[in-house]
Amino acid sequence: MCPAGLYRLFAEDASNSRLGERAGKRYFPRRMNACIISVGTELVTGQCLETNAAWLSEQLASVGVQVIEHVTVGDQLQHLATTIRQCIDRFDLVVATGGLGPTRDDLTREALAQAIGRPLAENQEALRQIEAYFQRLQRPFIDANRLQALVPKGCSIIPNRRGTAPGLSCQSRDCLLFILPGVPAEMKAMAEESVLPQLGVRPGGQAIRIANVLCYGMSEARIGELLEDLMASGRNPSVGTTAKDAIITIRMVARAADPPGAQRLLDADVAEVRSRLGKVVFGRGDGTLQAAVAELLVEKRLTVGTAESCTGGLVAKRLTDIPGSSAYFLQGFVTYSNQAKTDRLGVPAEMIEREGAVSEAVAHAMAEGCRKVTGADVAISVTGIAGPSGGTAEKPVGLVYIGLADDRGITVKRFLFGEQLLRREIRDRTAKTALNFLRIHLLQ
Q1: How far apart are CA 359 and CA 248, in angstroms?
Q2: pLDDT per residue over 194-228, tens digit each?
Q3: Domain for residue 1, yes or no?
């Protein structure tokens, strides 16, 4: 839905200092400045993690909008109304998420009405869409949902095909506002279908293209050394790194007068990063190690089996998270006990007694046994100490052996992730490292 005043922001007769005439010449802002408001007491109290703002920031940047500020506000009417009013005064665009539900603590509609000085009224089109949603699900209409059909006078509704809460759009003075539900799936669909297309066609906007290159197996500090010149301040594209759960993301933002120009700058940097980092790069965007492995297994028409101890089936779980995994995944074993290693995989009991369950020899035997039992082209084995107890001076918490067996032989690698990590972190790191071990092997 397009508010009637959308393009007035950029009209010839604009007079506001942010958007109008300067020195007798018409101009347009190179970048539209925006604020994202996240609404919900559960967010400010830490009960829920706010993720909408990060996604919205990236999407808005892709259409040339610069997000200046993120604001998180609880479900308090007057404070929320004041926040919206202040943002209207300071920004060209405000996008708010949350507070559009059917209960009395969902106050964003009322806060918006107060902030722009317009009364709320039941919108018949919004009500019709809500009723149609219940009909599609063959559920009775709940009268409390009528609250979601309240719309400030002069505002347009944004259809919501995934839920009951319509979004809202309007213009107040020189600020464009979009109000979206807080449910991520609903918010993302509505933003992609109804918000971003409008912003992407505004005249005079600067084209921005973004890429996230994903890396595993090299420290952020080393990556920073290898990309130091690309990360210079003021450079276009701008390049930076972030680390989360051992995945290093290289963020690149290219700006140009038009989309093709920005894309050319971005593509050149992506190619340069890949050239410098080689096999450390495993994907783009929201890719995963398991997706990268799956692609290689399908491409090479290979099958895989897993034998896990300390990860408890996490490697198998991630490999089968990918749709179509039956094309390459045959079978997985969780041989947590020593007896299971012997019974299911044929690991000699005397080997376990002599070397210990967490050892190179046992990881070797587990991989060998897994490949033999499953008939897979490649087998991955994992044995280690995830903690927090069970470690010794010789075999501390965080010690892991990962084995890989195929027709070329069996390779075992030793990893020490560190006893400072939590149990779930060691298990996560082990699963990622096993997948990356397999990925690198498949690239050879």
Answers
A1: 29
A2: 999 888 655 555 677 889 999 999 999 999 999 99
A3: no
